[in-house]
UniProtKB/TrEMBL annotation, chain A:
Keyword flag Oxidoreductase: yes
Enzyme Commission number: 1.-.-.-
Name of protein: LLM class flavin-dependent oxidoreductase
Region described as Disordered: spans on this chain: 1-22
Xref: SUPFAM superfamilies: Bacterial luciferase-like (SSF51679)
Residues of the Luciferase-like domain: 1-295
Lineage: Bacteria, Bacillati, Actinomycetota, Actinomycetes, Kitasatosporales
Highest taxon in the source lineage: Bacteria
Source organism: Streptomyces lanatus
From TrEMBL, chain B:
Keyword Oxidoreductase attached: yes
Gene3D superfamilies tied to this protein: 3.40.50.360
Pfam families on file: FMN_red
Source species of the chain: Streptomyces lanatus
Domain spans labelled NADPH-dependent FMN reductase-like: 1-149
Enzyme class: oxidoreductase
Record EC number: 1.5.1.-
GO molecular function: oxidoreductase activity
InterPro entries recorded: CE1759_FMN_reduct, Flavoprotein-like_sf, FMN_Rdtase-like_dom, NAD(P)H-dep_FMN_reductase
UniProt-recorded name of the protein: FMN reductase
Swiss-Prot/TrEMBL keywords: Flavoprotein, FMN, Oxidoreductase
């Protein structure tokens, strides 16, 4: 099982000091956080993609390429790559390039994006969101698998005799996750292709996550990629820890109360009871995360949101130490416990290459 | 048959709730079959409704109320008139229900106010709201001003509207369940890309 972190890349004032980081501060902080993730033994770093303030990561492969040069093991990913408003041709090129530079340590997560104006800013219509995701991904899928593509669709200029370069590393396209919170159409898309399905459950009650994951799993089996239990599932999580849970609650409360997403709404206590947010001791984080398996089944990737709501870099790095030293080693052991042998690990470049060689041989 | 009464009254006791109860009793009298009634008091859900607007998901009590409303066979909805329209709480409750979840739902609309001068709120505010949600609204709406509680005529309108709701529910097949339907992916792709060769 893979453990990692995902970042929204928001520039948010620290409510305890009133200080707002500059964009440069925030970008460098994201890099420092990614390097720390590798240092403490995590497997994945994923960055969001946004095209409006107060968010900095508009150009994920630039950032991930820089991180790739400074890491050895970390898998670089996205959360999410906008399959609706990016040109699928450019996604094919950018991520194949990143794959070569990072020696295959690359996958990506497709998402539609929920910021309305981004669609018109990039010349698209939000009412076509699902159709854009379907058509653009169908083209991307071919660009990575066919050397010469002739193509015509509804949303993009046609292609005649087009070759996307560089070709995927070793002829193995990056593994793709499809992220969706509430669209069954996207769970169906992930299942159709045998790709991964990531449910970003961090603001959602367990029963909703359960329904979406069950739909994906049953459709994955329907399309013959394996059993429902073998489908490739990823989940989010959101934690703040201190050795003593009271200290965690006291320190995190002002960040929670003022966070752009859930601030000025429900109490920290109500929110932690209903969603995966855990504020407490490492042991509490372990218990809550292990319980995800009860409703999502044995899964492949767990990403935590750690750097948000204006938390200062120093605090985030301390959180990553706790995550890497006290939480993830226990989670690895406990999740492995009782996991059926036929449940696969998350695909990596190495595993996909090995599978391809078996098929060819 | 299960009917849910949605009351947006704020005081306790409330004339809005009283109107809802009288409508429910009349529906019970008109219905030949056994009818089960459930009352959703929006006052008790006010904080969870506000949180849902900011968070995007319902708390436990609100989630149960939404499930009750969307799975009902018919609704009786009653709001006080505030500033020439339904109350903000009433509107916010229907704002957090999925847009298609009330499609085809038989609905009896009713409102209360201090004066009869606002009675057209039924037709200029409530009826368009439920038309947008593609619910089916009974022809007679019931408006009760303070003075109506001491005058003749309200009973007749209640009986008329209740009879219409029962008739409408009897004439309809059981409402569909809300389970999401999956369009097989190949169909979705084919609809888009007739010429892409994918």
């Amino acid at each position: 099982m893979q453990f990692g972190i995902f970042s929204v890349g928001d520039v948010t004032p620290d409510p305890t000091t009133g200080r707002t980081p500059t964009e440069r501060d925030r970008i460098k902080a994201m890099v420092a956080i990614a390097l720390k993730a590798e240092e403490v033994g995590l497997d994945v770093f994923a960055t969001g993609e946004h095209h409006n303030p107060p968010f900095v990561p508009s150009s994920p492969t630039t950032m991930l390429g820089y991180i790739a040069a400074r890491t050895e093991r970390l898998v670089l990913s996205t959360s999410t790559t906008l399959i609706t408003t990016n040109d699928p041709v450019k996604i094919a090129e950018d991520f194949a390039m990143l794959q070569h530079l990072a020696d295959g340590r690359v996958d990506l997560m497709m998402g539609r994006g929920n910021t309305g104006p981004v669609y018109p800013w990039f010349g698209q219509d939000i009412r076509q969101g699902i159709n854009l995701a379907v058509e653009n991904y169908a083209l991307l899928h071919r660009l990575w698998r066919e050397d010469v593509v002739d193509w015509e669709g509804k949303f993009r200029t046609p292609l005649q005799g087009f070759t996307s370069t560089p070709r995927p590393l070793d002829g193995v396209p990056p593994f793709v996750w499809h992220g969706s919170i509430r669209s069954p159409e996207i769970a169906e898309q992930a299942a159709y292709y045998g790709d991964g399905f990531f449910h970003n459950n961090i603001f959602w009650p367990a029963d909703h996550t359960k329904r979406m994951v069950e739909l994906y799993r049953s459709r994955y089996a329907h399309y013959g990629h394996g059993t429902a239990e073998q489908a490739i599932v990823g989940l989010g999580g959101q934690v703040f820890m201190r050795k003593n849970s009271q200290d965690a609650v006291r320190e995190f409360r002002p960040y929670f109360d003022n966070a752009p997403v859930y601030g000025h709404g429900p109490s920290l206590e109500d929110f932690t009871e209903q969603t995966p947010l855990t504020v407490g001791s490492p042991q509490q984080v372990i218990e809550k995360t292990l319980a995800f398996r009860d409703y999502a089944g044995d899964y492949q990737r767990q990403l935590f949101l750690m750097d948000h709501a204006g938390l200062p870099l120093k605090t985030v790095l301390e959180q990553l130490d706790l995550l890497g030293e006290e939480v993830v080693p226990v989670l690895r052991k406990e999740f492995a416990n009782g996991r059926p042998a036929e449940v696969p690990e998350a695909p990596t470049h190495a595993s996909l290459l090995a599978a391809k060689e078996v098929t060819v041989a | 048959m299960r009917i849910v009464v949605v009351s947006a009254g704020l005081s306790v006791p409330s004339s809005t709730r009283l109107l809802g109860d009288r409508l429910a009793a009349a529906v019970g009298r008109h219905s030949g079959a056994a009818v089960e009634f459930e009352v959703v008091e929006l006052r008790d859900l006010a904080v969870e409704i506000a949180h849902h607007l900011t968070n995007g998901f319902p708390g436990r009590k609100l989630g149960a109320a939404i499930d009750a409303v969307t799975s009902a066979d018919g609704l009786i909805v009653v709001t006080p008139v505030f500033s020439a329209s339904y109350s903000g709480l009433f509107k916010s409750f229907f704002d957090v229900i999925e847009k298609d979840a009330l499609a085809g739902m038989p609905v009896l609309i009713a409102a209360t106010g201090g004066t009869a001068r606002h009675s057209l709120v039924l037709d200029h505010a409530l009826r368009p709201l439920f038309a947008y949600l593609r619910a089916v609204v009974v022809p007679t709406g019931v408006y009760a001003a303070s003075e109506d509680w001491g005058a003749q005529g309200l009973d007749g309108r209640i009986e008329q509207a209740a009879g219409e709701l029962v008739g409408m529910m009897a004439g309809r097949a059981a409402r569909r369940t809300a389970e999401p339907e999956v369009v097989p992916f190949a169909e979705r792709l084919a609809a888009l890309s007739g010429s892409s060769g994918a």
